[in-house]
Amino acid sequence: MTKIIIGFIFVFLNIGITHAQEYNKVKVILKDGVVLEGKKGFITQESVSFTTGTTQQTYSLYDVNLIQAKQGKASKWALGCGGGCLGLCIVSGIVQGSEGLAEYDLTPATYALGSAIWVGICAGAGALIGHLTDDYETVYTGNTSSILKNFKFSVSSNQFAKYNLTLAYKFPN
User: What is the pTM of this model?
Assistant: First the structure.
């Protein structure tokens, strides 16, 4: 019986993960060339929803040419750097013990305060690193983004040349 319940939980979690993706910031480029930016992007198999200012906007993926998103790395980096510093301070405090702290004229309260300050500094540095390294990544490309569809080939003639062959390429935005 427990295997069946665990199986159902696994299936429902898997369905939820595969059918929707959330992003902190999104940049949506529509097929008519309009570029929209927003926060709290939510992409399903049929549409993209995001917030611009105070309004929620939803577009069908049929109308979308490209979606770029930021992953929101600042909080992950802050958590990693601050947590690593906290772990280092805890291990260092345990290894030194009260005798080691007394050797440097520290009380456990001053050691905890100093550790909290260092954890805050490391978490701030991690947030800065995460913010600076969080670039837009392409998460959805519409059907019209094929490189071959950007080429235009034409043949014409005029009074100066018998045949005029033209090959042009339109660079995407």
Answer: 0.54
Which domains are seen in the chain, by residue range? 2-70 (2.30.30), 73-133 (no CATH)
Cross-strand pairs, 140: 67
Quick one: which H or E segment has residue 168?
A: strand 164-169
Cα–Cα distance, 165 to 163 (Å, whole number) = 6
- pLDDT tens-digit profile of 125-150? 999 998 888 888 888 887 544 555 56
Q: Which pLDDT tens digit goes with each residue over 36-81?
A: 888 888 888 888 888 888 888 888 888 888 888 887 788 888 999 9
Q: What's the token pair of residue 136?
A: 């837009």
Q: How far is the C-alpha of 32 from the C-alpha of 37, rounded, in Å?
A: 15
Q: Residue 147 burial (CB < 10 Å; 0-12/13-18/19+)? A: exposed
Q: At a CB cut-off of 8 Å and minimum separation 6, what does 5 contact?
A: none
pLDDT of residue 122: 92
Cβ count near 137 (within 10 Å): 11
DSSP category for residue 142: -
**pLDDT at residue 119 tops 90:** yes
Phi and psi at residue 89, to the nearest 5°: -65, -40
Query: Quick one: tokens of 167?
Result: 């090959």
